[in-house]
D-alanyl-D-alanine carboxypeptidase
Amino acid sequence: MDIGPRDADRWLIRHGSRYGLCQTYSNELWHFELATTPGGTCPPMS
């Protein structure tokens, strides 16, 4: 999913893994995917 505005992506970068949402591409700060179980560790970005 793509997120906006900037405050939302910053919040998800810090807290998204609580919900299983991870930033998956290092060049797209606004793009997040369900990439772990809630509370899990996000995989490395591509």
Summary: Residues 6-15 form the longest helix (10 residues). The CA atoms of residues 2 and 13 lie 13 Å apart. The beta strands are 21-23, 32-34. The two ends are 16 Å apart (CA to CA).
